[in-house]
Amino acid sequence: MKFMKLGTRPDTFYTEEATRTVSSDVASDLVIQINNITYLLHKLQFPLLPKCGLLQQLLADSGDSVTDSVQLHDIPGGEDAFELCAKFCYGITINLSAHNVVRAFCAAKYLRMTESVEKGNFVLKLEAFFNSCILEGWKDSIVALHSTGKMIEWSENLGITRRCIDSVVEKILVPPAKVNWSFTYSRPGYNQKRHQSVPRDWWTEDISDLEIDLFRFIITALRSTNILQPQLIGEALHVYACRWLPDTTKVRPPESSASLINQPVEKNRRVLDTIVSLIPADRGSVSVNFLLRLLSTAGALGASPVTKTELIRRCGLQLDEVTVDDLLLPSHLSSDQHCYDIDLVSIVLESFLVLWRIQYPAPSQDSQFMRSIRKVGKVIDCYLQVAAKDPNMPVMKFISLAEALPDVARPKHDDLYKAINIYLKGHPDLNKAEKKRLCRILDCQKLSPEVCAHAVKNERLPLRTVVQVLFFDQERGSKATSQKLPPQELRSRTQEIQLNETVQSKPKLPPDDRAQEGVRRAPSPTIHERDHHKKLHLKSERNIAISREQGEVESEKGREAREEGISGSKMMNTRKTTMQGKSSSDHGHYKGRDR
C-alpha cells in the first residue's frame, strides 16, 4: 500500500473536553464548529485562511470582528477530514494513504484549496497522489473505492468513484499470467502449494469487501465487456453471498430461528435481491447448490416475490444437476415442526417439470429429457429416504412430493419402496387409512424380485399391498415361463412322434415283455408338470394372503355380523355333517355291491 507524507512540524493539536486547539503563543482568533467539535485556530498567524477559498469568502462577509466563528457542519468527511486540511495549512506532518485520501480530497475541494487560491495547494498534491499511486495499485484502488461509501455524492460528483471502478475493472481483465500484485485468496489448500499459478478468480475475495452498490457497479461493468466467462461472474457472486448473507443451510432448533430476526434483515434482503439480479442468464453460470441456498435464504428473509420466482425458475432449470445433499435444506417457518424444507423441494420440482415439458412435449426413450427426468427421479426418491427419518414429517407432504414425479421418472420403484418402508418404520403411529394411502403410490409391477421378496415378509405393509406384490410376482413368473414354453413343447412333441415311430417299427413283444418295457419307459415328470406345481404353490401363497386380508376385513364389520355368520355356519356344518353321513353310508352300500 502506497503512502504520502506531507509537512515537517510535529503534531501540536490537543483536545480539551470537546475543543481542539493548537499549541501556540498567539491567541486564537478563528472558531470553527463541526458537528460537536470546536476548533480554536488562527486566521493569519498560520496560512489557514490564505489556502482556503471558502473561509476567505465566509470571513469577508463577517466584517472586521476580532474573533470570527464559522460553522462547517456539512463538510464531507467530517472533523477528521477537516483536521487533515488544517494540519496541511499549519505545516504539521500528515500521512496520506488509500484509507484517508478520498475524504481529504473531498474536504479540500469543499474548502476550495485549489491552485487558483494559492500555488502548490492541497488539492493539486492529493490529485497527483491519487492518480499516480492509488489508482495504480490493486488493493489501494479497492480500499479507496470502499471509502467512497461514506461520501457517495461528493465522490461521484468529483469522479472518484468512477475512476476507482475503472481501475479495478481494468486490473480484473488482465490475464492471470500477467498479474504481479498482491491479492487476497484464502481457498483451502492454495497457500500450501508452491509455484502455484494465479487462479482465474483471484479478484473475487477482494471485491467482496465492498458495499453492495459498489459491488454491483463492478459486476455490471465486467458483464458489459463480454470478456469474462459467466462462471467467473457467478463465482464472484457466490463469494460475495458467503461474505454477507446469513448461513441458512444448517438445521437449527426452533428457538434459534429467532436469531435471524436480530440481523439487519432489510440490508440482507437488498443484498439478496441484488445478487439474484446479477446472475448471468447462461445456464451453469452458478451451481444449483448455490441457487437452492439462495432460495432457502430468500424464504428465511422474506424476500420479494420477484426474487423468489426467479430463483425457483433458475433452480428448476438446473435441477438435473442436483444431489441429495443439495436438497437437504432446513425449514425456517415457525409453523413447521419438521427439519427439512420439503415444500421448497416440491416447488422446485414442479418448476422443473413445467420447463422440461415445454421443451420436450413428446420425449423419446433416448432424449435428454428422459435422462434428466430419471436422474431427478432417482435423487427425489433418495431425498425421500432421508426425509422419511424425520419423525415430524407430515405423511401428506411426503406423499405429495412422491406423487409429483411422472411415471417415466421411475422405471423401477425400489428406491420409492425403501423410502416408504423407512417412513413406516419411523412413524409407527400411522393409522390404517394413512398406511394404505401411503402405499397406494407404490407400483408393485416395478419392484425387483429381491424387493418383492422383502415386501412379502414386511409386516409394516398393509395386507392389500402384500397381496398385490404376490399377484404381480406370480404374473411375472408366469410370463417368464410362457416365454420359454414354445421350444419346450416343440421338443416334447418331437420326442413323442419319434417314440411312436419307434414303437410302430419294433416287433410285437409277448405280454410279459411288453409289461417290462412299460416299466422301463415309465415317464418322469415333464416340464409342464413342474410348472404346474410351481403355479399351485404361488397360488396357495396368494390365497393365504387373501384369506388374511379377508379375515382382517371381516374383523372390521363388527361383532354382531360375525355372530350371525358363525350361527349360519353352524347350521351349514350340521347340514353338511348329515349329508356326509348319508353319503358315507351310500358309498359303503355301493362298495359292498361292487364287491
Please, could you describe this protein's structure?
α8 (160-172) crosses α10, α15 (305-317) crosses α17 (342-359) and α18 runs parallel beside α20 (414-426). The radius of gyration is 44 Å and the shape is elongated. The chain starts with a strand and ends with a helix. It has a five-stranded mixed beta sheet with strand order 2-3-5-4-6, with helices on one face. Strands 1-7 form a two-stranded antiparallel ribbon. It is mainly alpha-helical and 595 residues long. The protein is built from 26 helices and seven strands. β4 (30-34) and β5 (37-41) form a beta hairpin. It is 60% helix and 5% strand.
What share of residues are in beta strands?
under 5%
Query: What is the count of β-strands?
Result: 7
Rounded average pLDDT: 81
**Shape by Cα distribution:** elongated
Distance between the termini: 126 Å
Helix content: 55-70%
Rg, alpha carbons: 44 Å
Unreliable segments (pLDDT under 50, ≥5 consecutive)?
254-258, 483-538, 549-595
Largest sheet: 5 strands, mixed
Count of helical stretches: 26
What structural category arises from helix and sheet content? mainly alpha
Strand order of the largest sheet: 2-3-5-4-6
Write a compact overview of the structure shown.
With 595 residues, this protein is mainly alpha-helical. It is 60% helix and 5% strand.
